[in-house]
Amino acid sequence: MEERDPGRDDQLRSETWKGLYEFFMAEHERRVEALTELGVSPGDLKALMRLVPDRGEPMRALAGMWRCDASTVTWIVDRLEKQGLVERQAHQTDRRVKVVVLSPRGKQLRTRLLDDFYQPPAILSELSGADLEALHRLSTRLRPD
């Protein structure tokens, strides 16, 4: 059995994480640039991705979900509402509470964004079948439960 070098393992972890982080950040920047063509800001994207189609979320719950204060939620929802991407509606059981739902246009845009974001980067086509299989196996293990 091969003896492991803890120092080498630390170096490999560090170099691997740095490479993955730089790859993801470059992809993120490339995709954010594409968002601007659709008139969507990174904040809009985060909000749209967190809203579940056909499910209203109270404004207070959005503050927790988006990790921001209530005034920021109001500002974001106002922006999205002006773009026709969300609607404010009364809560089904408590009319004092406003919920935010994706509009039909918001659902379409969210679907398009997800489709675009789940398209694999072109560089993955350059990997060998064996490398792609290994990356798939490892990325599956790294997913949070």
UniProtKB/TrEMBL annotation:
UniProt keyword Cell cycle, yes or no: no
Keyword hit for DNA-binding: yes
Molecular function terms, GO-annotated: DNA binding
Keywords, ordered alphabetically: DNA-binding
Pfam families for the chain: MarR (PF01047)
TM region positions: none
Domain of life: Bacteria
Domain HTH marR-type: 13-144
Protein name (database record): DNA-binding MarR family transcriptional regulator
